[in-house]
Amino acid sequence: MHVKSKIKNIEDLRLEIVRLNQLKKEQEEYLVDQYQLLKHKVEAPARFISNLTSSIPGVDFVKGIFSAFGSGGGAKSGAANQSDWLARALQLGLPLVLNRTFLKNSGWLKKAIVLLASDSAVAQVTQGKVSSLMSKLAKFVRPKKSKKKHKDVAPLDDLEDNGMVNFGIPPDSETY
């Protein structure tokens, strides 16, 4: 490293500024290179797992289902990525349920037709539609709030009018 002992005039000052700027640029380039090397080393396990799972069929579909949970509901590109987590879970679970119950003894053609129709039906189901349906159902089932009127007890307004209820200070109390 080159260090000058004294700056005697304006020309020496300008040369020192140029030298320091050059030194700054070299150090920044070195740090960027070191950062890229570190980043490459840290990402190595993720690259290994990605290469390993890319050869297994069906992993991308499962990743797509679970990526909807952590996405926060942002807009995505592609028709498959636009559905919410509920629709994705139904796309995965409905064929399994139908194959185990209704289509147990059916042939492959009938299963394929029903599963294709169920997939298109599930595509219409969204979390918003289900929640609006549930809120309408809850509104219908929930009892309406009404005031219960007791025949034996007079309302508080009637008692105040008759002078029976007084929450003030009694006239014979000591208030001094």
Automatic annotation (TrEMBL):
<protein>
    <submittedName>
        <fullName>Uncharacterized protein</fullName>
    </submittedName>
</protein>
<feature type="coiled-coil region">
    <location>
        <begin position="3"/>
        <end position="30"/>
    </location>
</feature>
<keyword id="KW-0175">Coiled coil</keyword>
